[in-house]
Amino acid sequence: MRNEAQRMLADIQELAPGLAARAAEIEAARKLAPDVVDTLKSVGIFRMFVPQSHGGFELEFPKGLEIISALSRIDGSIGWSAAIGSTSATFIPLLQRETYERIYRDGPDVTFAGSAQPAGTAEATEGGYRVSGRWPFASGCMHAQWIIGFCIVTENGKPLPGPAGAGGPPLVRGFVMPARDWRIEDTWHVAGLKGTGSHHVSMDDTVVPAENFMDVMDGTPCMPGPLYQAVPQLLPLVHSAVSVGIAEGAVSELVAFANTGRQQIRAAVPMRDSETFQGELGRIAADVRSARAFLEAQAASHWRHAQNGTLKSEALHAEGTQAAIWIATTCVRAADACFTLAGGGALYESSPLQRRMRDLHAAAQHAAAHSRHYATSGKHLLEHSALA
Hints:
By secondary structure, the chain is of the alpha+beta class. It folds into 3 domains: 2-94, Acyl-CoA dehydrogenase/oxidase, N-terminal domain (Butyryl-Coa Dehydrogenase, subunit A, domain 1, Orthogonal Bundle), CATH 1.10.540.10; 111-214, Beta Barrel (Butyryl-CoA Dehydrogenase, subunit A, domain 2); 229-387, Butyryl-CoA Dehydrogenase, subunit A, domain 3 (Up-down Bundle), CATH 1.20.140.10. 48% of the residues lie in helices and 13% in strands. It is built from 11 helices and 9 strands. It has helices at 2-20, 23-29, 34-43, 61-74, 76-87, 97-103, 231-258, 275-308, 314-342, 352-364, 374-387, and strands at residues 112-114, 120-125, 128-135, 146-155, 158-159, 172-178, 183-185, 200-209, 213-214. The protein is globular, with a radius of gyration of 22 Å. The two termini are 41 Å apart.
């Protein structure tokens, strides 16, 4: 599918000016417009990780990340929504085959949203599980056909123990239901990634069929292929692809701003002719190139493990998360520096640099790339050293 990926990148490049012109509109609406979603469908975004057997492209993981980054360079909310909508397809093979076939019976361009927080409860009942909960950060829920949630499984109202047994984390299962069965609460009033429509979703005392549940950590996928064998290990790098794309967009926009000939107050020369500005720009660009190189190296390593069937590892999950944190932190620093270098002009809502900065700060708050998770990689290093 190399040619398909190249075709998608070419399509995105052609669509970039028109999509970039919609950024302020998307942010004001707090969601993607229906025609923007249709445009993403026409490019093939929502089918790029769907199996070829079901009409998808089943792209190699690094190629898919390249496409997500390309969209994030255009606009952070578009890139984030595309990332959620496309990579959700890697979860779905963890459902029973009959449920999987039902979801894709009308074709591969199925749109998903969801929240990975186990913010609901599921208790066994006749016909499945009785589910109640309220889930935050359901990116893309305004245009999704199906929504994914995660629940703590209970019995008589008490959490069941997970694989580690009593004293360990409770048993958690994911599930999927049509979007019409969820209640969307208008809560997405935020500082960044405003256009992703990441509202809360909820349901109360709803019976969800047992066949709609999945075990993301230890389940056996109903579809073959390396994309579907160790989904949690792949997800931090999806986040990184968005971060790098947004940061690359910020650098490009700063360069364009400087090339207008702008000269700041009390500056001896225009920005583009200032050696101080040139030096700072060079440093920022080096940071972003480093983030891109780290992403590509980690994605290539993960993909080799996926192809060899060795990706399902706590150590590799920690390694990917470590990479995602460093990349997010580096990209935030770069966007902050771009904003600062641009001066007072970057304060206006018409400036894409203030949006880039806000979007990256919002993305870095996500659990997949939050700095507190550095501790996991440190723990693995200590344990490995102790065993060596």
